[in-house]
Design goal:
Keywords: Membrane, Transmembrane, Transmembrane helix. This is DUF4190 domain-containing protein. With about 280 residues, the chain is mainly alpha-helical. Among the domains are: about 85-145, no CATH class; about 160-270. It has eight helices and no strands.
Length: about 280
């Protein structure tokens, strides 16, 4: 039985067993070199093995090109219709100046279609403008068809010197006669003098051939009224009243002058329509 060295520590009873061949100091033995690697790894200096070429550098990927901008589709917010404003103007003009409405609406509709847009206002404006233009033309044609003769007479009267002078004289006489319609509102002397002045004006009027006979009947009737006043002192009220009562007019005279006056008025209403009067 061996004796334990007092200088050595006591063995640990819980330590794992030491393999055989392990030095007493506890240091692990150095293993021999592996035979397969005696020459070193390939590529190492002094290994005697050829140097493996390196992998070529991978080329970089080219930069991705930018995507083009998205196209603008009709009706997209922010898209401007080039014919919208003109189309609105054409729609408004359809109710007031339809001929202008046709032009503006057609331009607006063309611009909108060129931009791939719909323009309902321009379409409505074009339709309404055409409708109102046709309706107006039909009315004008109808008026000329029914009153063409009257219009022609009015134009002729304005250009004929005799007709123009008659119309102007007739307008003045109408004013004078309207004043003499109510003798009670006038002084007797003023009334008598007004009749004498009107007679002088009537005698100086030359009527056109179409109404010459009727005009002569009117002047003759008025002469019968005024003739007793000639030579009478108009300031003598009694003498004036006596003269006016002795005109000798009959019912037949009244009937004749009413028919003649009506025909003269009808003729003047058309032929004098375009004649300027004072």
């Amino acid at each position: 039985m061996s004796q334990q060295d007092p200088n050595q520590p006591a063995p640990d009873p819980y330590a794992p067993p030491t393999p055989e061949g392990t030095p007493a100091g506890g240091a692990a033995p150095t293993p021999p070199p592996y035979a397969g690697y005696e020459g070193g790894y390939p590529g190492q200096e002094g290994s005697g093995q050829p140097v493996q070429p390196g992998y070529p550098t991978q080329p970089g990927y080219p930069a991705q090109p930018g995507y083009p901008g998205a196209p603008v589709y009709p009706g997209r917010p922010g898209d401007v219709d080039p014919g919208r404003g003109i189309g609105i103007a054409g729609f408004v003009c359809a109710f007031f100046v339809p001929v202008v409405g046709i032009i503006l609406s057609a331009i607006g509709l063309s611009k909108s279609r060129g931009a791939g847009r719909k323009n309902p206002l321009a379409a409505w404006g074009l339709g309404l403008s055409i409708f109102f233009t046709v309706a107006f033309a039909a009315i004008v044609v109808s008026v000329f068809a029914s009153h063409g003769d009257d219009i022609a007479d009015a134009v002729k009267g304005a250009n004929d010197p005799t007709t123009r002078r008659f119309c102007q004289a007739d307008a003045r006489l109408t004013k004078e006669m309207n004043v003499l319609q109510d003798p009670s509102s006038m002084e007797t002397q003023d009334y008598a003098q007004g009749l004498l002045d009107a007679k002088d004006d009537l005698d100086g009027v030359v009527a056109p051939d179409e109404i010459a006979t009727d005009w002569k009947a009117v002047v003759s009737f008025f002469d019968k009224i005024v003739a007793p006043l000639e030579g009478v002192d108009t300031s003598d009220e009694a003498a004036v009243k006596q003269a006016l009562g002795s005109s000798g007019l009959t019912q037949a005279d009244l009937t004749t002058v009413q028919g003649a006056g009506s025909r003269v008025d009808d003729w003047a209403s058309t032929h004098c329509a375009a004649v300027p009067v004072d």
